[in-house]
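---------- Forwarded message ----------

FYI, see the VOC domain-containing protein record below. Original note from H. follows.
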Amino acid sequence: MSFRIDDLQAAHRAFLEDGLVPTAIRAQVMGADVFYLSDPEGNRIEFWSPG
């Protein structure tokens, strides 16, 4: 599952403030920035923003 987010930094910070553990934000080859978060069942969810 993947979600496009307008403000990736704010979303990442909000997850951290809520006690969740997203991966670090990484720049991708195609210019997008991305981070991942696992749901309670271990499924990886992608959050991305165009670079």
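H. also flagged this: The chain has a mean pLDDT of 95.
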